[in-house]
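Lab notebook, bench 4. Continuing the backlog of folding jobs that were queued last week. Each job is logged with the same field layout so the records can be merged later without manual cleanup. Today's entry covers 4-alpha-glucanotransferase, a 707-residue chain. Filled in by technician R.K.

JOB TYPE: sequence-to-structure
TARGET: 4-alpha-glucanotransferase
LENGTH: 707
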Amino acid sequence: MIEQDLRRLADAAGIQVEWTDAFGKRQTVAPDTLKTILNALELPCADAGQLRDSLARRLAENARTTLLPLLTCTAGLPVPLSKDLDLQGKAYRIEFEHGGTIDGRFAGDVPEAPSLLAPQHTGYHRLLIDDQPITLAVAPPRCFSVGDALADNGGPEQAIRRPWGISAQLYSLRRKGDGGIGDFTALKTLAEAAARHGASALAISPVHAMFSGDTNRFSPYSPSSRLFFNALHIDPAVVLGEQALRQVLQQTGQAESYARYEQLELIDWPNAARLKLDILRQLFQQFRQNPASGAEFEQFCREGGQALLDHARFEALHAHFSSGSLEGVSGYWPSWPDAFRDPRSAEVASFAEAHSDEVQFHLFLQWQAAKGLSSAQKAARNAGMQIGLISDLAVGADNGGSQAWSRQKELLKGFSVGAPPDNLNALGQSWGLGAFSPHALKQHGFGAYIEMLRSAFAHSGGVRIDHVLGLMRMWLVPEGMTAQHGAYLRYPMDDLVRLIALESWRHRAIVIGEDLGTIPEGFGDRMAQAGLMGIRVLLFQRDHGYFIPPEHWAPHAIATTTTHDTPSLAGWWAGHDIDWRSKLDLREPGNSEEAEREQRTHERMALWNAMRHAGCAHGELPSPAPEHAPLNEAASFLGRSMGPLAILPLEDALGLPEQPNLPGTVDTHPNWRRRMPHASDSLLDLPEAATRLALLNKARSHTREST
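JOB STATUS: finished
OUTPUT FIELD FOLLOWS
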């Protein structure tokens, strides 16, 4: 009986007790794991009494008799309303956000769920029932598409094109005067260069805010906040001009160090970041003395509101507590004195007032970062890109970061998101990132989720959602446990997808979902229905050992050769990933290096044959010399894919052997540190890169003509 009630409580809490893994095997979450997760969800179940009380409380919450603060729906379709709501015979009014109203009344004495048809006008409207206001988020049936973007920025004849783009790790971009870290100016010049070669899009690594008080933390997928931007991508010369930057470098004696970091092959994050922040602080002080753009800065702060102020205050507090001056207190905010864990406390307000210069500095950094990213997007569009930048929305933020501190009521406590054992990692993954609480999101009107979406869409023509599978369910790992001892928590996918579609159209930006991993049944169909494009990666596009012909790739997903977590084509062809696994002892048990290299020989032959059958390669595979990867042929092969957009990573355009990140490593592999070999304004003009882009462009044109 207890085990049955435990399962009922888990199901009521949204935990998927049974699920099918990536290998097709049915799995059941162990009772001890369920208890650990339920306790972390504040549903104690240590004994029969606790279990009974928690079950009764959650069932009562689920059978709510009051309306939530926000309802999502699709234009022209019925609004999903619970039959438990007492709405029979009540009058309602819909007030449109841009003016106009609709009045109506629910039918009386009807046993079914109350019926309300959503208006055709999309937007965030106000629904009044007995004068109780509720936000009615009316979404279009699908996201803004690649075809919509082409029609917007080239006319109807452009809408039938099959465009292409490139992807880049922003931090890796190089230019003279960057101080050792890729910045928004380098991004701007790369976008202009890509547009000259015919690209319609430029996908970039996440630009989320990091921890200014801890420059040792630099993974773009482990941010402090997904609401704001990484200040380290600011070009200091843009702040007050190149002359002001030169004066700061000369006066502080930092010119030599600044130039030295610029020449490194690997980014020296701790030192280069500290130096850049120091330079930006000096420029901020000059700005304060003669604020030529003071009015613009003040407007930015007003528009950013409480969320922006919270982030700036967190940055100041984080630096203060990271100093080690208080025993037992660190930069990890759950270790702070109780009063400082509450963003609305009087102590936090007093600290912010006493350290107003520091708070203002971080507001200033966000202003400059937003200006830099916006400028790069404008440059991309002005250069002829129909889409422009595609930003990357990380799957979560650090549990000790700004977003977790300021949005505590909407986030889960005591968990890390991750993935169960699958084809990508036999041991599963725990990423050390926090996740939204699906229950709290509904209770708070999805406010934290909407503000995050708006930040991602703000300065881009598209958004890539990392681990988009989390829209339906998220693998949660309790703190202190390994990834195998997690469980899936269900999320309100319909609500989340509707909000994505609504914000997509409001910003007129495409949406891509990274759908690699253990995919639940029906997920792909729901994605396609919503116009949310998936991702198909060349190295994974296989069926029984054969590479799938490009014309058979999914038409509702973008195509790419590799990702930041997988080998570059040149590295894969040469078996460089096998070298790394051997060096770092990352090989799966029972799999020898010899067997892997023999398998890779067969895989190279299979890929060559697939490219030859597609008309992209000719003749027999040249000598098996793995140092000569068929990168030109791969660019043509990618271009012939049927997806609405093809993306070629810079690493594959240039034939670089190393990948940006090696999953399962921290310090043993230079993750997120590799820099491009040439400046961003000339990178794509190198003969090998220009040839591959031309082949990709030609293949996309060929694909267009053949459809």
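OBSERVATION: The longest helix spans residues 294-322.
SIGNED: R.K.
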